[in-house]
UniProtKB/TrEMBL annotation:
<dbReference type="GO" id="GO:0005737">
    <property type="term" value="C:cytoplasm"/>
</dbReference>
<dbReference type="InterPro" id="IPR014710">
    <property type="entry name" value="RmlC-like_jellyroll"/>
</dbReference>
<keyword id="KW-0175">Coiled coil</keyword>
<dbReference type="InterPro" id="IPR031831">
    <property type="entry name" value="PKcGMP_CC"/>
</dbReference>
<dbReference type="GO" id="GO:0004692">
    <property type="term" value="F:cGMP-dependent protein kinase activity"/>
</dbReference>
<dbReference type="Pfam" id="PF00027">
    <property type="entry name" value="cNMP_binding"/>
</dbReference>
<dbReference type="GO" id="GO:0005524">
    <property type="term" value="F:ATP binding"/>
</dbReference>
<keyword id="KW-0723">Serine/threonine-protein kinase</keyword>
<dbReference type="InterPro" id="IPR002374">
    <property type="entry name" value="cGMP_dep_kinase"/>
</dbReference>
<keyword id="KW-0418">Kinase</keyword>
<feature type="domain" description="Cyclic nucleotide-binding">
    <location>
        <begin position="276"/>
        <end position="362"/>
    </location>
</feature>
<dbReference type="InterPro" id="IPR018488">
    <property type="entry name" value="cNMP-bd_CS"/>
</dbReference>
<feature type="coiled-coil region">
    <location>
        <begin position="46"/>
        <end position="73"/>
    </location>
</feature>
<keyword id="KW-0067">ATP-binding</keyword>
<keyword id="KW-0808">Transferase</keyword>
<feature type="domain" description="Cyclic nucleotide-binding">
    <location>
        <begin position="158"/>
        <end position="273"/>
    </location>
</feature>
<keyword id="KW-0547">Nucleotide-binding</keyword>
Amino acid sequence: MRVCFDSLCFASDRLQEDGDDENHCEIVTMSNGKVITSEDMATVNVQELQTLLSAREARIRELEIQLRQRDEEICDLRSHLDKFQSVFPFHIHNNNHLNSVANDNSIARPKKQRAQGISAEPQSLVSIQELSQQKFNTFPKNDRSRELIKAAILDNDFMKNLEMTQIREIVDCMYPVEYAAGSLIIKEGDVGSIVYVMEEGRVEVSRESKYLSTLAPGKVFGELAILYNCKRTATIKAASDCKLWAIERQCFQTIMMRTGLIRQAEYTDFLKSVPIFKNLPEETLIKISDVLEETFYNEGDYIIRQGARGDTFFIISKGKVKVTIKQPNTEDEKFIRQLRKGDFFGEKALQGDDLRTANIVADDPEGVTCLV
């Protein structure tokens, strides 16, 4: 009995030790004095890892979005670069022609960087009277469509410098066309005769069968073919059902010619009223008017600053300016005189003297317009 009792006591002690081992947890004291067990520590570590993983996944998604945006920007810039490269020879030819005009008449063309406008292709000679009497087919549009077309033109690198009168006529003459999803709208390499503005839907742009970009409503496409007489630079397909507005090359160019000839006649008549030009031959005046550009200044704007270097000759076509000279050893300016429509300034630039000797300040509440 003694042996059996001792055996039972030994077994009981072992069972109690095993139970203590199973219930034992390591005690950890945190730096803030809080006491947690090893099991709690494991739970905290898992939560921290999950938080880190969630943060990294969010960062990855953010970087992926940025990458897609940059890819889209690269595609857009490549598209713009291709467009500019495709018309670069045209600009070289055009600039050489304008420079030759200036040299032939011994009048230095201003070196000021001028905004690139739109040049219609040469057509048979017609009179201003014939162009002014020509009627265009116009198509009704609601205000939303008209504003969308106007905004699209002003957002386009090649058309944003059109005059508002030209834009209004283009908007009036654009007609509606629709394409079903999958339809071919423009084929790369073809000779184009239509420019489009997207109102509804999406189109995909590709070159040499490689996807470039997707265009959404409010975009112009197909403009290069009618502006510069070049072949289509890309293929455009309808990615969804599309509603577009379109205008034919002939109508577009007639609008450009009409405004251009009317402006040329106005400039030529104005130059005849300017003493320095009034005795020049008509042909010379026409060539000068072809290279003139209107520049607008608000009241108080400095058109010329004394002491600055410049190479531009100005003719006032609207408004008034004041001539002032800076007083020595002071910031004050002495009023010299006032110039009005038909007066000119900066003529020394044509004689090789590029240092401005006085200030010319716009002095009209309605602003000043100069031909440069």
